[in-house]
Amino acid sequence: MRQIFARRLRAERDARAITQKQICERTGLGQPFISNVERGKITISLDNAGKVAAALGLPLYKLLEPCGHGRGG
């Protein structure tokens, strides 16, 4: 699940031309944290995952769909 979230986060962020810095500004989370999440190095809490999804304008479940389903595949 962590790797699916990581790949989907990166794909959705890239599709929207949003930088990691912008995600950080919108969520209050640190850039090293977001970078580690995107690389699948750490697990994100549900609360923080919800913040990231909201920053992208997505429902949380979209970040849990494997790439290849829907947008960013």
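The record above closes out task 2.4. Task 2.5 opens with a second protein, given below.
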Amino acid sequence: MLLKELAPQVLGVLVRRYGQFDSAEDAVQEALLAASVQWPREGIPDNPRAWLTSVASRRLIDEFRSENARRRREVDVTLGDTTPDVSDRDDTLDLLFLCAHPALSGPSQLALTLRAVGGLTTAEIAQAFLVPESTMAQRISRAKQLIRRSGRGFESPPEAERGERLRVVRQVLYLIFNEGYTASGGPALQRAELTAEAIRLARMLHKLLPDDTETKGLLALMLLTDARTKARTDRGGNLIPLDSQDRSLWNKEQITEGVSLVSASLGRGPLGPYQIQAAIAALHDEATSDAETDWAQILALYEVLERISPGPVVTLNRAVAVARAQGPLAGLAVLADLDGDARMEGNHRVEAVRAHLLERAGFRQEAQAAFARAAKLTASAPERRYLEGKALTLLEQ
């Protein structure tokens, strides 16, 4: 864990000083490997970050020296001062900003963040997003090339860009969390390594920006959501919906921390979507049962969320809240707003919500057909089994 925490800090130092992302990353990996061999035998040094930075810097300078004839420019830059940078400055935030570079596509931002800041291997990232390792390697390589061609240095973005870049950083971390919490495909409902990594990085961001209320809200949202993990599947890996979960299995420590964080964020700064979603998650987690859930308050929060951060997913979730607070027919009326929305085309969750609301309204035949359609649209095996099971049950009734 110590090496994983120090890796982005050391990489940040090298990228800031030498400006060679690829070479710096390779040098850091070599330093981490050396540490994993030497530290168990010789003990952890007094200043482990300085040790890693020193080793990685030497590796990088050796590489530049070995290519002296072909890479004279890099040699001129680096050989003037070979003293490693061992200051207390933490460059992790700048590294996160670099990974959220506006020239990169969303998938590239995700991949580069997990590679450079999260410390995951290319193979691990490829496995998480269900693509071949060669494809992910190309994606990461292209991302680095785009950053290099952009001409931007490693310095913090201008003040005018900082807010937008921070918004993208939060979004990237939340996308990583969501892919871990409900995998877009594959045999398992969730990927614990991704949710854990997203929470770790969100903690890191919160530590770097302790007064940023939206970052606090993001961390709270992750903790409050992840707290339900153990209750989401049975022993066979089959999905258990929220209203049927054994709440005694929910992680009370995470709930307590998440509630504390969201309470500390609300009213302390500009209201943002992560704070509102965290407040909604807190209402779910603090309810002793599904029947005790304050759906009227949850609906009110979704209405606020839709005003400040509108989108089809928010509308979908509001439809569920409307159905629970005002009845399934009212929820179906809200859901109709998404009919024909190209952004949700092929999204199984629209049909899944429609099926549940039709079932609650007593339209079993229509619900059965909607469950069957949703099952065909999802790439997640546990979700497909659950939806097919619901369709079969209704068919037999």
